[in-house]
Amino acid sequence: MAERRHIKRQPTSLRGRLILEVGRDVLECRVLDVTTVGANLEVPERVAVPARFDLLIGSGGTMRPCTIVWRRSDRIGVRFL
Fold first, then answer.
1. CA dihedral in degrees (56, 66, 8, 12; nearest 10)?
2. Cα 64 vs. chain centroid, distance in angstroms?
3. Mind listing the pLDDT tens digit for each residue in 2-48?
């Protein structure tokens, strides 16, 4: 399949955390790749992830507000807001 993205993806194997509700619900994930505008995340397959959440990449990383742009099985693509 041809690559349609205009921004180069940076493959990673970083741990991430989805902050679903400030100070309450946290979901662990794996960041598969990241760009300046979004990321590809691996999440537990049977967990409901809301359309918007905050993403913390790595330990001590920056918190980024996100919205889901696609979902497939245990993967979600997010755009940084």
1. 30
2. 9
3. 556 567 788 898 999 999 876 678 999 999 999 999 999 999 988 88
The model carries a pTM of 0.85
DSSP output for 7-55: S--EEEEEEEEEEEETTTEEEEEEEEEE-SSEEEEE--TT----SEEEE
Classify residue 39 by burial, with Cβ atoms within 10 Å: 0-12, 13-18, 19+: buried
- Name which residue leads in pLDDT, 65 or 8: 65
The pair phi, psi for residue 16, each rounded to 5°, is: -140, 170
Type of residue found at 65: P
Question: Which residue, among 80, 77, 81, has the nearest Cα to 42 in the 3D structure?
Answer: 77
